[in-house]
Structures are given as C-alpha cells and as structure tokens.
Amino acid sequence: MTAADLSPADAEQLRQLLARFSHAFDNADADALAGVFAEDGVIELARTGAVFTGLEKIRVFARDLGQDHPDHQTLDSVLTVDEDGTVRGRSRYLAILPDGSVHNGDYFDVYTRTADGWRIAHRRSVPRYPRRHHHA
C-alpha cells in the first residue's frame, strides 16, 4: 500500500481525526478521546520522556492538566503510507498557554483502522520552541 492507495475518504477521515484531537484533549472529554485514540493508544512526550499508554491514562493526562491546559492547534498535516501499509502522519502544532505565550513542535503519528474508524495508535510530540521545559 502506498500513499496513493490511501483513498480520498480515508484521507478525509484522518484529517477529521486530527481536528478532533484538539477538541477532545483540550476539553478533557473522555468520550471524545475514545474517538481519537486507540484503546491501547500511546502519547509520548519527547522533551520529558513521559509516556501515556492506553486510553485511560491518556484521559487522566488530559484531565490532570486542569484549567491552565494549553490550547492546541494542529496544522500542516502530511499523511504517508509505509511499504508495509503502516499509515503515518506528521503535523505541526501550536499550543497557546494561558499567559498568551506560544510553543510549537511536531506530532509524529501512527494510525490504525478500527471497527469504529481511524484512531491514533501512537503519537510522539516533539517540541521545538521554546527550548525550556513546558508541558505539551
């Protein structure tokens, strides 16, 4: 399977999935997160080395960020398909913090097709700026 084999419908569903992430995660919406991450999905934060494995841990991560949660925007997503059929995405993100400051970086995703549609199987969040520690 190549990127050309990713149907327009699949590509649109994946773009909708990427759009749903910010709404679900930033609102700590437990139900909506089930529509974004696979049951055994993973979020890996490159800067801190933190890894959240499984939908329940992802829900707790989102909830525990609390009211001062960054406001995430997902941008410039590019979808690719490996020779073995693995579907990947690379997106830029902007995260606006409560004080109005911004940080940014890349999401490196692997997607999986479930009975309920596409989900994020693995997301590696790699910040660029600022270089000092912030939660992504």
Mean pLDDT: 93
User: Biggest sheet, in brief?
Assistant: 6 strands, mixed
Beta-strand percentage range: 35-45%
What is the share of helical residues? Answer: 25-40%
Shape: globular
What is the number of helical segments per DSSP (H or I, 4+ residues)? 3
Low-confidence stretches: none
The end-to-end span amounts to 32 Å
Radius of gyration: 14 Å
Structure summary, number of beta strands: 6
Structural class: alpha+beta
What's the order of the H and E elements? HHEEHEEEE
Strand order of the largest sheet: 2-1-6-5-4-3
A few lines on this structure:
The chain has 136 residues and is an alpha+beta fold.
How does this structure look, described?
There is one protein chain. This protein is an alpha+beta fold and 136 residues long. The protein is 25% helix and 43% strand. It contains 3 helices and 6 strands, in the order ααββαββββ. It has helices at 8-26, 30-34, 55-64; strands spanning 37-45, 51-53, 71-81, 87-96, 102-114, 117-129. The protein has a 6-stranded mixed sheet. The radius of gyration is 14 Å and the shape is globular. The mean pLDDT is 93.
Write the layout of secondary structure elements.
Blueprint: H1 8-26, H2 30-34, E1 37-45, E2 51-53, H3 55-64, E3 71-81, E4 87-96, E5 102-114, E6 117-129
Parallel strand pairs: 1-6
Antiparallel strand pairs: 1-2, 3-4, 4-5, 5-6
